[in-house]
UniProtKB/TrEMBL annotation:
GO terms for molecular function: DNA binding; zinc ion binding. Residues 53-154 form the Replication protein A 70 kDa DNA-binding subunit B/D first OB fold domain. It comes from Abeliophyllum distichum. Coiled coil: none annotated. This is Replication protein A 70 kDa DNA-binding subunit B-like. It holds the Pfam family DUF223.
Length: 163
């Protein structure tokens, strides 16, 4: 069997840590597993963070990466135009399993992009939202942080009949 360029690179770097950037987004190998074996293994859905590991809203802070929260959309306000600019925004209140809430905001084209995907009362796994400290001037919900949902945010609806 002939080797591909990528397998030759991995083979030549097997004992090196120079290619660790390949691990981004796929996890970390067990301490007993060789890097090459980890990178070349078949994808296993049971290891997928989006499927089985969730944090609570209170545990997500600005600068955190790799988090996933299971939330229900408790409220979904209509889209509005900002007072000081022509920008449109829409606030959504998300609630986790402990009843903690966070305000998530969508802006401009993301309001339309997620219009049919984010439905009040439905449960979702959300990750990669931008987490910021709440600006007291615009606070409409209690809490120290707010999330911004954009095209980079991963959202997966949860089938509650299977959980």
């Amino acid at each position: 069997m002939s080797s591909t360029p990528s397998s030759r690179v991995i083979s030549s770097r097997e004992k090196s840590r120079e290619f660790l950037h390949f691990c981004i987004g796929i996890g970390n190998p067990l301490e007993t597993m060789a890097m090459k074996a980890f990178l070349l293994q078949k994808f296993n859905h049971s290891n997928n963070k989006m499927n089985n590991q969730y944090q609570l809203i209170k545990d997500v802070h600005p600068g955190d990466v790799g988090w996933t929260v299971k939330v229900t959309i408790a409220e979904k306000s209509p889209a509005r135009t900002a007072k000081k600019s022509p920008k449109k925004y829409q606030n959504i209140i998300l609630m986790d399993s402990e009843g903690s809430t966070v305000q998530a905001t969508l802006y401009d084209h993301n309001i339309i992009a997620f219009q049919d995907e984010l439905i009040q009362g439905k449960t979702y796994l959300i990750s990669n939202a931008l987490v910021k400290l709440t600006n007291l001037e615009y606070r409409s919900q209690s809490g120290d942080t707010k999330w911004t949902i954009s095209g980079k945010t991963r959202i997966q609806q949860v089938d509650e009949t299977q959980t």
